[in-house]
Amino acid sequence: MNIDSYTNLFCLIGNPISKSLSPYIHNTNFKYNDINAVYLSFKVENLEQAILGIKSLSIKGFNVTLPYKQEIIKYLDNIDQIAEKIGAINTVKNINGKLIGFNTDGLGFMKSLKDRHIQLKNKNILIIGAGGASRAISFTIANESIKSLTIVNRNKKRALSLIKDIKSKYKNLDLSFLEKQDIKDNYDIIINTTSVGMYPNEKEKPLDTSLFSDKTIIYDIIYKPKETLFLKQAKEEGKTTINGLDMLVNQAILSERIWISENLKIYPFIFK
Ligand code: ATR
Questions:
Q1: ipTM > 0.90?
Q2: How far is the centre of ligand 1, averaged over its atoms, from the C-alpha of 161 (Å)?
Q3: Taking the domain 8-103+249-259, which CATH number applies?
Q4: Is 98 helix (H, G, I), strand (E, B) or coil?
Q5: Where do the catalytic residues lie (predicted)?
């Protein structure tokens, strides 16, 4: 696709943005779908000015990353329901100057389960971590008729605050905090949302997976390395494992589907 006067610009705003894979994923997928668009990343120091620029240049859509996922909310005209519950935005659509906010992180996670025919209904889920990624995933799965959700996190206060927020939106959900040493083999799916085990600290793991039965699915949202020590141990024990690459690609493509068309295909990405 050649850049011409019809080319649409999409972008990422955040700070820092230099390590982001989003430009690669979006530009590859635009090309794959024959969409006349480019995706750039902008290091933003002043969010208000960036928003004015986006509006005046009629940029059709953009992603938001750290540290602006919450601050962006005050510049939006409308917010999608699940994004509102999460309290953070990673995708914005510009419709004739009106900005609508979405969060595709949790939905990208959900899609990776659906693609593997893994159902969440009546499942007991353990989430490790209580940061931004945990928030997006926790709220999204709280929507899915799960049996229980347990959160374990180094900082107990942060976990309790997340639990309080989820409880205020999902009153009937069986939701609890657990200290690491009290974890037992009670879970169908365990999800690591922390950075423990991520490059360059690949020798760490958030939990010992031998605690759990071989039927437990172990999901690590880290994608660098592709196989964390956490997943490696679980795989050696015969458990089903999922890494963060599908979630990474899915959240990006779900953004494109919001911006451009529900029918966009997904390029078969292979990451080293
Ligand atoms: P993200 O947006 O990627 O979720 P974040 O909001 O900074 O990033 O959250 C990082 C998560 O990883 C938190 O749950 C954090 O635990 P704390 O709340 O206790 O800080 C967790 N985390 C990061 N480094 C950790 C470590 N070395 N050990 C245990 N947990 C860690």
A1: yes
A2: 14
A3: 3.40.50.10860
A4: strand
A5: 69 (proton acceptor)
Q: Give me the tens of pLDDT residue by residue for the chain, a chain 272 residues long.
A: 689 999 999 999 999 988 889 999 999 999 999 999 999 999 999 999 999 999 999 999 999 999 999 999 999 999 999 999 999 999 999 999 999 999 999 999 999 999 999 999 999 999 999 999 999 999 999 999 999 999 999 999 999 999 999 999 999 999 999 999 999 999 999 999 999 999 999 999 999 999 999 999 999 999 999 999 999 999 999 999 999 999 999 999 999 999 999 999 999 998 87
Number of the ligand 1 atom closest to the C-alpha atom of 66 = 2
Name the strands in the sheet holding 174-177, side by side, starting at the edge strand that comes first in the sequence: 174-177, 148-152, 124-128, 189-192, 217-220, 241-242
Q: What is the pTM of this model?
A: 0.94
Distance CA 261, CA 37 (A): 13
Mutate to test the pocket of ligand 1, among 128, 154, 201 (most ligand atoms within 8 A of CB): 154
